[in-house]
Amino acid sequence: HVMRYTTHCLKIKELVSSGKLGKVVSIQHLEPVGYFHAAHSYVRGNWRRQDQATFKLMAKSCHDIDYIRHLMNKKCTRVSSFGSLNHFRKESKPKEAGSATRCLDCPIMGSSVSFADIRKTTIEFVLMTWI
Fold first, then answer.
1. Which of 38, 122, 88, 100 is closest to 108 using CA atoms?
2. How many Å apart are CA 53 and CA 70, to the nearest integer?
3. Three-class SS state of 47
4. Does the model's pTM come out above 0.90?
């Protein structure tokens, strides 16, 4: 995977392999998933249901786990993942949303709490930074 070949990852691999860091006994790695990506892909998107796709750790972090295995040059013996679905729950739905079941059908589109508008703004920002 591409993580193995980035400049900073190559340097970390070099340092670990050289022994200069001593014996590595634990690695703590964070895979930050932005709220817009989490909502788009894992709450409402293709990976929202484990029975139709896979669990989030595999879907989002398999490359990170591969990199850690590569870094250590041995198989992982234990991986843990934690998180929860705190926000996108029926009981957290704004009353103003009425009977809408999707952000795009919501009558509060255009307000500061509209996920669809936040997502649109984020996508426009990303496109602007790449143009």
1. 100
2. 26
3. coil
4. no
Cβ density class 84-116: b for 16+ within 10 Å, e for less:
eeeebeeeeeeeebeeeeebeebebeeeeebbb
Q: How far is CA 102 from each of CA 14, 25, 41, 105, 115, rounded to the nearest angstrom? A: 48, 45, 14, 5, 10
Average pLDDT, the chain: 76
Q: What's the token pair of residue 68?
A: 């850690």
14 phi, psi to nearest 5 deg: -60, -45
What's the Rg (C-alpha) of the chain? Answer: 20
Residue 122 has pLDDT above 60, yes or no: no
- Can you tell me the distance from the alpha carbon of 45 to that of 110, in angstroms, rounded to the nearest whole number? 21
**Residue 23 and residue 62 in contact, taking contact as beta carbons nearer than 8 Å:** no
- Contacts of residue 17, Cβ cutoff 8 Å, sequence gap at least 6: 73
Q: Compute the distance between CA of residue 89 and CA of residue 44 in angstroms, rounded to an integer.
A: 11
Q: Is 56:83 a contact under the CB 8 Å cutoff?
A: yes
